[in-house]
C-alpha cells in the first residue's frame, strides 16, 4: 500500500464528510485504522459490505455509511491514485 496515496484518499474522504455531512467524520478515521492495520479483508468475513451497504450493527442501527464501506471507498480511491502515479498523471 502506498502511504502517500492512502493519506491523500483519506484526506479527500474526510473533506467530503465534513463538507456534505453524508459520512460521520469519526467513521472516516476508523476506516483509515482498518486500512492501516490491514483488517478490511478480515471484516469481509464478518460482514457483507459494499460501497453503500453493510450488514454490520453500526450501519443497520444508525442507517449511515459505516467504517467498512468508507474503508472500501478510500481503498478504491487509493488504487486510483496509485494508477494515476503509475501513468504519470
Compact overview of the structure:
The chain is mainly α. It is 72% helix and 0% strand.
Would you spell out the secondary-structure blueprint of this structure?
Layout lengths: L2 H18 L4 H12 L3 H7 L10 H6 L4 H21 L2
Which descriptor suits the 3D outline? Answer: globular
Q: Number of DSSP helices?
A: 5
What is the C-alpha radius of gyration, as a whole number of Å?
13 Å
* Unreliable residue stretches: none
Oligomer: single chain
- Percentage of β-strand residues: under 5%
Helix percent reads over 70%
Terminal-residue CA separation: 19 Å
What count of domains describes the coordinates? 1
Order of helices and strands: HHHHH
The main sheet comes to: none
The class by helix and strand makeup works out as mainly alpha
Overall pLDDT confidence: 93
Instruction: Give the number of DSSP strands.
Output: 0
